[in-house]
Amino acid sequence: MGNNLTPQWLLWAREIQALAQTSRFYAPDEFQRQRYVRLTEIAAEIVAAYTNLPLEPILQAYETQDGYATPKVGVRATVIQDDKLLMARERDDGGWTLPGGWADVGDMPSEAVEREVWEETGFQVKASRLIGVYDANCSPHPAPFQLYRLLFLCEITGGEARPSNETSEVSFFGRDEIPFELSPSRMETRYIDAAFDAFNKPDEPVHFD
Fold first, then answer.
1. β-pair type (147-159, 123-135)
2. Helix ranges (DSSP H) in the chain
3. Residue 138 DSSP label
4. pTM to 2 decimals?
């Protein structure tokens, strides 16, 4: 699995959930569907048991998934001004991260990241370059679902710094000023290195896991 840092129990839970989701969608009758509903419950119980998180929110997240199971897609923006990187502090965990979030259905990836920066930081930006495609399995804090993150280099075109209902602070940091309190579910230190490398080296190749 290469640099996969995801614990084996979570890989099993994900696979059970994905198989149950896809099979439930194609099940020919209610009897078969109920079997896959139970597999979904087992996957949620595994995650709850190993994380000590409440079962119900995990089960609800799994049950709302429908259709053929595929990896989720998130977008993150790197915005550098005066050699400093734009970051936002998340309200839910108090950690700093690059602005971004889930890609919505109907969005082009560049549109998704531009919207997220505006909503979370108050800056209008234009995506200028894809920096990399990252597998969240390589993070020490993997997500309940398989997740790919697209990291874009963006340029400010307008606006001003302001927090939002998701973020409590917005600020720029030099490479040696990055806060220690990073949002564990959203941020990896390798994104920071990639951001400055891409900004300073226009010919830097696109990274992919």
1. antiparallel
2. 8-26, 30-51, 55-63, 109-121, 189-200
3. G
4. 0.79
Q: Is there a single domain that holds both residue 137 and residue 105?
A: yes
CB 207 within 8 A of CB 131: yes
**Sign of the dihedral defined by the CA atoms of residues 135, 137, 143, 145, in that order:** positive
| H/E element, 161 | none
Q: Can you say whether the dihedral through the CA atoms of 16, 148, 63, 183 is positive or negative?
A: positive
Rg (CA), the chain: 19
Last residue of a domain, one of 24, 39, 63: 63
Q: Domain range holding 56?
A: 8-63
Closest by CA to 76, choosing from 109, 111, 100, is 100
CA distance 5 to 8: 9
Residue in this structure with the two tokens 């606006």, named with its chain if needed: 159
pLDDT digits over 170-203, tens only? 999 999 999 999 998 899 899 999 999 999 998 9
Backbone angles phi, psi at 75, to 5 degrees: -125, 145
Q: Which residues contact 42 (CB under 8 A, 6 or more apart)?
A: 16
Q: State which amino acid sits at residue 8.
A: Q
Please check whether residues 98 and 128 belong to one and the same domain. Answer: yes
